[in-house]
Amino acid sequence: MKSLPNILSTGRLILTVLMFVALAAAAGGVPYVSETLTPDTQFALQRFAFWAFVIAAVTDYFDGWLARKLDAVTVWGAILDPIGDKVLVAGAILGLMALGPQPAVVLPVGL
What we know:
This protein has helices at residues 4-26, 39-69, 75-98, 103-110. The model has no long low-confidence stretch (mean pLDDT 85). By secondary structure, the chain is an all-alpha fold. The chain contains four helices and no strands. Helix 2 runs antiparallel to helix 3. It has one domain (4-110). The radius of gyration is 16 Å and the shape is elongated.
């Protein structure tokens, strides 16, 4: 049980990579996918990326809470958690920027 917070942090990093790849594929930036990209597929990829971000953000809260609750604070977790936070935010920003200039995207990314 004491390794559960580290498992959540590692899972968050994996989910972040999947989110970024889904956004890049929706933008047509993944080889062999851009030839078969329909608007429905693009929307499904964007929807998956959104939910991946939401789940990753929620697990960010729970891994810290569980680490404190279970007294499972580790050096590995202390290093992995801030890295996961930065990779999640940077992956989301880069993935949204890959979609192109859209008013709902440009404002938060530009700030």
